[in-house]
Give the backbone structure.
Amino acid sequence: MAQDIPKTMRAARVNQPGQSEYMLETLPVPSPRATQVLLRTGAAGLCHTDMMVMDGTFSGSKYPVTGSHEPCGTVVRVGEDARGVKVGDRVAALLPVEICHKCPDCTTLDWKYCANSKYSGINTDGAFAEYCIVESETCVPIPDDLAFEQAAPLTCAGVTIYSAILKADIKPGQVLAISGLGALGHLGIQIAKAMGITVVGIDARPEPIEMTRNLKLTADLLVDASKISAEEAVEQIEKLKPKDYVGWRGADAVILTADALPAQRFAMDILRRHGRFVLVAQPSKVELGYADFIFKDVTLVGSLHGNEKDLAELVRLVAKHGIRSDVVGYPMDRHGEMVKSVHEKGRKGKLVMTF
């Protein structure tokens, strides 16, 4: 299938740390090399990490760089060693490029941890452009009835919270709590319910709580941390457990997606003894006490996005259960409005650049 590809394209760029909005520039359309694929971008998500790249607080950022690591679109050209995709395919793709496949992480664990790879939108150009480069091995086909605006959030926010749910290692009858009901959290609630998990959603803002309440796959319990204490929340969590339950009080695992220090403490305080605390938020520091780990015997683990298997499983789950992000789309010319809306009081859901 022949594709008309221009020589130049528009891109939203960060030229130096401290920018308050993107700069629109005209760049050459890149050519895919080896295992790479060129996408005509359909949509690309704005992530919290993008804001950290803009203000210079994300370690390893390189400038200038085109923003966004949440790409999806149509394949228009493939490199000579690309496998599993062809021109014309609608795909979602993950953020790593130039994965080495030689380091211990690649050869013995999972390439998503490859320290030699580059991250699109962070230290190599990303998807806030009319065309973008992705790795063929990270591409996952998306159904024709899944809009690009819905597919883009799956490639970071979605696969990150999905991987975190798997890492929480919830057993039948146990309770999972998700703290923070923003882009990751409100997807996580739906994913957990689709997986048959009893799930608690926590936030201190009325708008995300109300948005989550109105989801088709909503939480078994929604907690407004601005109105009740952690102990009161534990009392409500106990009512979700089987009548014959024998064990510890509180959630069996908690996933923290919120950066705020009070959210860290609240999440730890509702977690049961010997529970699992999964960190996906990116606070500048984690402030938890030694007693949480020594005397309460809590296990703290991090969770890093996902691989192509995780993304494929997630896309199937989304298609089967009608999982949706609460998306607000902005065309490239309105990039300034998109970035400003991040700081608006009452913001909820996911911001996406549309093409």
User: Anything to note?
Assistant: The first strand starts at residue 8 and ends at 14. The radius of gyration is 20 Å. DSSP finds eleven helices and 18 strands in the chain. The mean pLDDT is 96.
